[in-house]
Structure formats: structure tokens, C-alpha cells
Amino acid sequence: MHIAFTTDRLTARLWEPGDLDRAYELYSRWEVMRWLGAEPRALESRAEAAQLIERFRDRSADPRYGVWALEQRETATVIGSVLLVPLPDGDGAVEVGWHLHPDSWGHGFATEAARGALAKGFAEGLAEIHAVVRPGNAPSAAVCRRLGMAAIGRTDRWYGVGMDAFLAVPTPADGAGGKSGAAGAPGDAGATRRLALDLPAELVDWVRAFAEVSHRRVEDVVGPLIAAERARVEAGWHGTPERQAR
How much is the mean pLDDT over the chain? Predict the structure, then answer.
């Protein structure tokens, strides 16, 4: 059995043909599928589930990436999927994601699995990892915030429909150390926590507008803002200046 990574409670491993029933039970549920892909559609048959497992296995052929079955270690029950894959037409950009069965919601499994996937990606040299969340999916947006990912606005760049984008960069605590120098990762022990960037809504709107008129990617515009925010936080500032004055 190929194992991608483990956490305290979970094992991320290759999807197997023997997982067919659980895959169908998960991906035939509209409450799960409504948030996934450009054109959400629930599976209608076990034959479709078998094809999906094969696609997941194909996407996991490169050991750096994959859509892996997420197994609860205590019970050996598959509770969903966790993924770390290149984004479509992403010029090398990589996303983290999670699909959990409703019977496993509310236990912190999504955050734990995604944190493990981020750690794997950063340990193997990725400089940044994205997450894309369909508008209205408040639980997944909350997972991104718990992971310390920066909200960088809404984009249709990757899936052809508007998605809320989040960005994570490595810190020394991720084991990636100086590999992310361009992202401005500091080296002192007090800076090992991940930076959670909380941009005011008006600034996010400005970034999106500026990116559009300058024909640049949102990520390229917001990168310097992330570095500036990191420097400001490490200098001892917390919250926006307006909030500090109150």
C-alpha cells in the first residue's frame, strides 16, 4: 500500500479498487459534490466511482502529487480524500484540497489532512501552495484560515468560474527553511508560525482591479503585499493600523 503521508489521526494513501463502495458513497452525495469542479455533478453509478478511482490513481503516479484516500488510523475507515495537485493551466501552480464524507465533518480532519499535505509539499521544495474554494463554502474557507492561508481574492483563472483563492507559503517550521526566500520567510524562531494575511476587503478589490488593468496575475500583485505584511508583523505590529488606533 502506497502511503503519501501520515498525521496523528490520518493516513493519506493511494485509492484502491477495494475502496469502491466508500468512493461511491462519498462522491454520489450532492452535499459534497456541489462544491467541486467547474460543473459540479454527483456520481450516478458504481461504474463511475471505479473510473474516478482510476483517475485518482493516475493523478497520483508522480509521488510529489496525488489525490489520496484519507483513512482514519484508529478505525481504518476511509473518510474522504486529500489532494495536492497542479492546477489546470496553472503554469506550475499547485493546490491543496479536501473532500470529506459528511459523517466525518466537524472533527478537524480536513484541517489536519491539509496541514499534512502542505507540509509534504513544502518539504519537497514547493515555494507556494494555493487553495480554491467555491463562493459560499464557508467551512472550507474556515479551514483555509485555520491553516494560516492568505485570502488573495476571487479568480476564474484555473477553473473558468469564480473561485475564492487562498495562498500558503513555507516557513522554517515547515522544514523548507531558506527555499522560500523570495516569499520573505524570516529565519528567527519567533517567525516560524505561518503568517495569516487578513487584507481589508477594499484592498482585495484594489488588487484585483490593478491586476486586471496591468495584465498581471493576482498572485504577482499580492506577493509584495504578503512580504510587506510579514515584515510588519515581525516588527511587532498586529492588525491593520486603523484597528490599532481604536
Answer: 81
Where on the phi/psi map is residue 49: left (φ > 0), alpha (ψ -120 to 50), or beta?
Answer: alpha
- Residue 218 to residues 81, 90, 107, 213: CA-CA distances in angstroms? 28, 13, 33, 11
Three-point CA angle 116, 161, 131, nearest 5°: 15
Give CA–CA dist 25/23, Å, rounded.
Answer: 5
> pLDDT digit string (tens) for 209-244?
666 676 666 556 666 666 566 555 555 554 544 444
Distances (CA, A) of 9 to 70, 116, 133, 197, 238: 10, 11, 25, 28, 33
Q: Which residues, at least 6 apart from 54, have a Cβ–Cβ distance to it below 8 Å?
A: none
Question: Residue 32, class by beta-carbon neighbours within 10 Å (0-12 exposed, 13-18 middle, 19+ buried)?
Answer: buried
Confidence of residue 25 (pLDDT cuts 50, 70, 90): very high
Cell of 122: 513544502
d(CA 131, CA 89): 15
Residue type, 73: R
> Which of 70, 79, 72, 64 shows the shortest CA–CA distance to 15?
70
Amino acid at 172: P
Predicted structure pTM score: 0.73
